[in-house]
Each structure stands twice: as structure tokens, then as C-alpha cells.
Amino acid sequence: MSSGVSPLGELARIERMHLHDTVLDHLRRFVIEGTLKPGIKINERELCEVLGISRTPLREALKVLAMEGLIELRPNRGARVAQMSDVEIRETFELMSGIEAFNGQLACERITDSEVQTIRSLHFQMLQAKASDDLSLYFEKNAAIHDAISLAARNETLRKTYLTLNRKIQAVRYLSNRTEEKWERAIHDHEAMIDALEKRDGERLQAILRNHVLDAGGLPRI
Q: Between these two residues, 175 and 135, which has the higher pLDDT value?
């Protein structure tokens, strides 16, 4: 007598999970990169047609994005892309600058040589994306560097706070590097971050990250 899930049932579950993750990744990218602009109402039928899916996986993904703060679900009025006020943006970037600075301090105390090399590799990939004018890939590698520093801090409570706030401001960060001056400043900051990590200079890395995040939010450096 057999028990448990059949192989076909397990395969169907895996396919559903894969579909969920794929839809979620697409929608998150649409929001972050501005394809779905802040404040716009979500057209479920259009998105279903674009992604070739039914409404069930779409709505499941929208619920996740709502928990991340990227989407607002309004009873009887549908979903819309979240829109932060200027005050919310300023306050969130001010807070995020402190969190990333603390990530940097702890990372300098706890990071391994292997992790530093991984970050250097991500930086090289980011430069390649810049050279090919691939803004999407540039942002992906840029974000991966910050995430790697967060992981190297080895503080789960701090990381949860970092992830929550970072999701809220990803779209702003993505759109902030649109001028050549900002591209160059961001790349210079990342090179300085790696140098500080290699030297385990926590005080210097704190200052670099704080100003880097403030700059991304359009706020004056300290």
C-alpha cells in the first residue's frame, strides 16, 4: 500500500512553485525598473496576457509584493503600485544609510577573505554591465554587493530590517543612477568599499556606505 505524494503530484507541485517564483520575479522587476510606475493601477488582464498565465498565480505574486511594500492591495478596488511620498523617501533613506553603515562595520569584523573575493567578482561583473549599458544587470550586481555585505555582517535581526527597508526603496535606487556623474560616483564608492573591506577598516566603510546610500536617495552626503 503506497502512501505520500505520487511522483506526478510532486512534479505538479514543483512546476507550480517554479511558476510562482517566475511570475514573482517578473512582477518585482516590472515595479523596480519602472515598467509599472508608482501609483498606477494593476491591470490584471493585461499582465496575465503578457506573462501567459491565469489570474491565480498573478494574484499570489501580488500578495507577496504587497508584503514587501511594492504593491498596495485595496479592497474592491484592485491593486496598485505603491507610491512613496518625498518625506517617506527621505526618512527611509536616512534610516537605510545608518543600517548599511552598521552592516559595513560588522562586516569588517566578520567577513572572510573568500567573501571579499566574491564581492570583488560582483563588482567586476557590475563594471561589465556598465560597459555594455545594461542597466538592469548593473542594478542586479550592485544590489548583490550590498546584500553580500549585509550577509557578511552576520546579524540576522539587522539583516531582516535591511531587507524590509531595501524592498521599499529598490525602485528609487534603480532610477537614481541615470546620469553619468552618478554612475561614476557609485562605481568609485564600490571600489572604495572593497578596499575598506580588504583592509578591515570598519570606520571608513561606515562612512562610505552612509554617504553612498544618502546619495542614492538624492540626499546630501555627510
A: 135
- For 192-217, write each residue's pLDDT tens digit: 999 999 999 999 999 999 999 999 99
Domain enclosing residue 187, as ranges: 86-216
Domain with residue 156: its CATH number is 1.20.120.530
Tally of CB atoms within 10 A around 109: 11
Q: Are residues 109 and 181 in the same domain?
A: yes
Q: Cβ distance 42 to 79 under 8 Å?
A: yes
Under the banding of pLDDT at 50, 70 and 90, the label for residue 4 is: low
Widest Cα–Cα separation across the chain: 70
Same domain, 190 and 91: yes
Residue 129 within a domain: yes
Which of 51, 81, 111 is a domain's end point?
Answer: 81
Q: Is 200 left (phi over 0), alpha (psi -120 to 50) or beta?
A: left
In the numeric block, the cell 534610516 is attached to: 95
Q: Which residue has 505603491 as its cell numbers?
A: 82
User: Quick check: 5 pLDDT over 50?
Assistant: no
- State how far the Cα of 144 lies from the Cα of 151, in Å rounded to an integer: 10
With 70 as the cut, is the pLDDT of residue 135 above it? yes
With beta carbons less than 8 A apart as the criterion, state whether 206 and 104 touch. Answer: yes
CA distance 81 to 72: 6
* Runs of H (alpha helix) within the chain: 7-32, 44-51, 55-67, 86-110, 113-131, 135-152, 156-176, 180-198, 202-216
**Cell numbers 490584471: residue:** 44
